[in-house]
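anyone seen this seq b4? input:
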Amino acid sequence: MASATPSFELTYSDLPPLFHRAVAADPVANPAFVLRNEALAQQLGLDVEWLRSNDALQALAGNAPLPGATPVAMAYSGHQFGGFNPLLGDGRAQLAGEWLAPDGTRYDLHLKGSGATLFARNGDGRATLSAMLREYIVSEAFAGLGIPSTRSLAVVATGELVYRQRKEPGAVLTRVAKSHVRVGTFQLAAVNRDREALDALMTRELARNFPPAPEGLAPARHFLRSVAARQAKLIAQWMGVGFIHGVMNTDNMQVAGETIDFGPCAFMDKFHPEKVFSSIDHMGRYAWDKQPGIALWNLTRLAESLLPLLADEQEKAIEIAKEELALFMPAFEQHFEEIMRAKLGWRGADADDGERIASIFRLMMERGDDFTLFFRRLTRIAAGEAPEDEALAAWRERAGATPDVEAMRRANPIFTARNHRVEEALAAANDGDLAPTQRLLKVLAQPFRESPDDTDLESPPAPEEEVLQTFCGT
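predicted toks r here
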């Protein structure tokens, strides 16, 4: 069956040139598909036969443009570990095109590892196969968990070696997102004092990814409130599965509310609230329990950037920003408590639930419980499938005789992308064996479903298997 050539667009280029730069072709030697996400293609209404074609291979390797689109590198600023850089941008990536799905949703196709751009800062513009597969695995794990995230459409091997700590196979990842606009994109307009560009960017994001503002609510205030509300829920969802993003810089916070940039991220095994995996986070800035505060810090930088649009008078704009930012932490706490009640099988809400939840986390820390297995076992206890744990008397008192077992089963995954299993899969893939990656992707697509043949993937790492640090891959 012949494939129909899809037609893409690139409306991002309609924004002021401050936000993008042209991309020079940087073809790879010998592209070959490693993974194709045909299920995602079907969800997007993208022709699967085209995805299997050589035309798609060349486009997703960065050797040819997507039909109908001229790629650009996106420009943005960013606070990285608290330090401001006025101009970052896509150093090894390109916004290749936009695809309009049948439901009217517009998606970006973004190529990572496609070659050096004007923002490369002496980098080679390439990416390793292991780093791109890692993003593919973790982003698809998020999709299985039902947590908003960018997705991965394909990984293409380049046929070239990339030099990092050692020589590694190179690859290009096709990332799909509702937007690649970040807090740092707004910071770029603000640092350049370009109110027109700032307004154009906000107007575009509002129209593309947010519902219309309620009557009487100004657009900029509606935008700030909407972005903050999505982040409050997203961070609560991360923490509810023990996820640590690892690099919550303002250039890594997407305003549409999807998880983006899976570099030094990890799902916790042994629980500790101050757990850090990133090899460069020496001060614990982005630890598990710091994530809500960092999200608010990032949103404050967004609010600062939006001040010219919030009100004509700066004092009034600051007052509006403070009022909106004050909504974030209560919203986060509400979402987090709701998630935790589901995980714990508690029906209804009680004013003391916050302290009860904190006491359970203290117990987990003191005992060194595995995050995922603790809630997995608790689900089995609630269902009468495992013996009662005396240390959980307070949980039982709140849960009563009939915990909400079905809610627990929907909230407590059996499988997560455990670090040691991901590393095993990546090591095998570097040796040409994709079977462990495919097996891992299979269970992560349905993480709440029992899989008797894959019980080993539930297990925490043995001491010699434990992954203590993760890396960004650049």
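Residues 11-177 form one domain. The chain has a mean pLDDT of 96. kinda curious what u guys think
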